[in-house]
Amino acid sequence: MHKNESDPAKPTSVIFKAAVALILVVLVGMSLLGVLSYSVYDAKTELIGRSFNFEVDRKAMEFEREVRLNLEIMFALRSGLALLPVVNRGVFHELTADVLRRAPAIHGFAYAPWLEDKDRADFERVMQTEFSAFELTQVSGNGGTDTASERSRYVPVQYIEPLKLNRAALGFDLASEPNRLAALRAARLSGEMVATAGLTLVQETENKRGILVFTPLYHGNPTTPQGRRAAHYAFINGVYRIETLYEQSIGAVASGNFLVRIIDVTDGIEDVLFASGNPRDERWRSDMARVEILPDVAGREWAVEVTPTEEYISSQRGYLPTLIMVSGSLLLVLMASYVLFTVQRNNELRKTKQELEQVSLTDGLTGLANRRHFDQYLEQEWTRAQRDGLPLSLILIDIDYFKPFNDEYGHPAGDECLKRVSDVLRTVSRRPGDLVARYGGEEFALILPQTDTAQTVAEACRLAVEALSIPHAASGTAPVVTVSAGVCTLVPQPGMSPGLLTQSTDVALYEAKAKGRNRTHMMKVASVDIEKTRTQGDNPT
Q1: In whole angstroms, how far apart are CA 98 and each of 78, 95, 167, 459?
Q2: Do the Cβ atoms of 55 and 306 come closer than 8 Å?
Q3: pLDDT single digits (tens) 414-430
C-alpha cells in the first residue's frame, strides 16, 4: 500500500527538481549574460574613449603642424629681409606677394620701424609722398582709429601686404596698445618671434579673432639684450587669422560631431580664440571634453579642446550589449568574440602592410619619395586636376656634372651631396600637397598640385642648392654644385595622359642643360611635340 502510494510521487518530485534546476540554470544564465553584457558595455566605453582620444590627438597634431608651417614662413621672410641693405615698398611687395598667395592663413605681413618721437614728423612727411593721407594712428574709444597720441617712441606700420586688404592698418602704431606693446618689447629683447594674445584686428571687417606675431630685425647679430636693444631698427609683423588656421588643418577633416575650441591658456588665463560651434548647445557631451596642450606658439601656450556630441558616442557604442541580453545566445557571444579577434588581427595585418608600403615608397638614401611613389602620386593628382580643371605643375631637377663630381670626390661624397640637395629641396617645398621625389640617380622631381607659379619654386630650388656651396672643382658651370631645372604647368584635358607632363618637363630640363646649366626653363605644352625624343649626344651629367 505504501509502495503504491509512493510511486505517483516520484514523477512529481523529478519534474519539480527539474523545474527548480531549470529555473536555477536560467537565473545563473541570465546573471552570466548580465555580467557579460555589462562587461561588453564597459569595454566598448573604454574603446570609445580611446577612439575619441585618438581623434583629439590627430586634430591637435594637424592644427599644430599648420601653425608651425605658417610661423616658419615668417622666419624665412625675416631671414630674407635681414640680408637687404634697404627695405622699400617694392622690395617688401616682391618678397611677400607669392608667400601670401600660398599661405591663406596669413592675413598679411607688415614692416614696422622703431621710431623715436623726434623723428615722427619727418617720417610722416616721407610716407605722405607715397600715401597722401598717411599718418600715425591708434585705436579710438569707439573702436575706430584716431591720430596717434604723442609718445616717446612708436612702431608704425610702414609697409603692409596685401595692401588692398590691409590699408586700414597702414600707419597704425603697434605700440599704442598694451597687448601689442608687451609682445613688441619681448621680441625686441629676446630676438625671438613673439605672439600677442588674441585680438580683433584693425583691418578685420568681421568680428573674428586673430593674433599678431612680431619678429625683430637687427643691424648685425647681437647676442645680449643690451646689444639687441642698441642694434634693433624694425619689426616684421605677421597677421594670422585663427579661423583660417583651423580651416586649413582641422576643418578639412572635422564634422558636426565635434565642438573644437582653440584656447590661449597662457599664465592660466583662458581666452577662447576660436570655436567651431556654439558651446552652449546642449548636444555637446561636456563630461567627455578632451584638452590637448600645444608646445610653445611664439611665446604663447595654446590648447585644442574637442568635445563630442551624444550622437557620436551613441553611434560608436552600437547595439551589441542589447543584442546579447535579448538573444541570450552564447553562440552570438562567441561570434562577437571571434569578430573582435578578427578585427584586431586585421588591424595588425593592415598596420604591417602600411608600414611595408611606406618602406617601398621611400628612397633609402635620401628619405624622399622614390620613383614608384612618384608615379602613383602623379597619376592620382593628374586625375584630380583633370576632374576639377585645376593646374598641375611638375619640376624635374638634375645635378649638373654629377658624374664628374663622383669621379673627383668619390661615391661617398656623391651620396652625401644627394642627401644635402634632398634636404634643401624638402625645405623649399612646404605645402602638404606637394611631393618631392628622387626621380632617378642625381635627378629629382617636384609635383605641385594647384600651382601655376612653378617656375618661381624651381628658381628657389636652384638658388637654395647653389647656396649650399658644395665645392665642385670638376664642374663646367660653377665652382660649387648647381642644378638645372625643367618646369611645365598644364591643366589636364580629356585625352591627355600624365606622360605628356613628364615628357614636356623632361624636354624643358634638356633645354635648361643645353643653354649652359645652372638655370631653369619653363616649357609650354602647346610648343612641345610630344613625340619628339632627345637628340643624340646629350652632354654627360
Answers
A1: 15, 7, 19, 13
A2: yes
A3: 999 999 999 999 999 87
DSSP secondary structure string, 110-128?
EEEE-EEGGGHHHHHHHHH
What sections of 220-269 are H helices per DSSP?
Answer: 225-231, 242-248
* Helix 454-467 with 411-428: angle, nearest 10 deg: 140
Kindly report the number of other CB atoms within 10 A of residue 198's CB atom.
19
pLDDT tens-digit map of 210-243: 899 999 999 988 999 999 999 999 999 998 989 8
CA 458/CA 517 separation, integer angstroms: 13
Task: State whether residue 378 is helix, strand or coil.
Answer: helix
Question: What global pTM score does this model have?
Answer: 0.51
Nearest to 336 by CA among 321, 347, 346: 321
Cell 608615379 sits on residue: 375
From the list 168, 159, 166, the residue with the least C-alpha distance to 93 is 159
> Residues in the chain, how many?
541
End-to-end CA distance of the chain: 120
Q: Which three cell numbers stand for residue 446?
A: 617636384
C-alpha cell at 339: 569578430
Specify burial of residue 189 (Cβ count, 10 A radius: 0-12, 13-18, 19+). Answer: middle
Q: What is the DSSP secondary-structure string of 168-209?
A: GGTTBBGGGSHHHHHHHHHHHHH-S-EEPPPEE-TT-SSS-E
Which residues does the chain have with pLDDT short of 50? Answer: 1-6, 8-9, 329-341, 343, 527-541
* SS3 readout for 3-20: HHHHCCHHHHHHHHHHHH
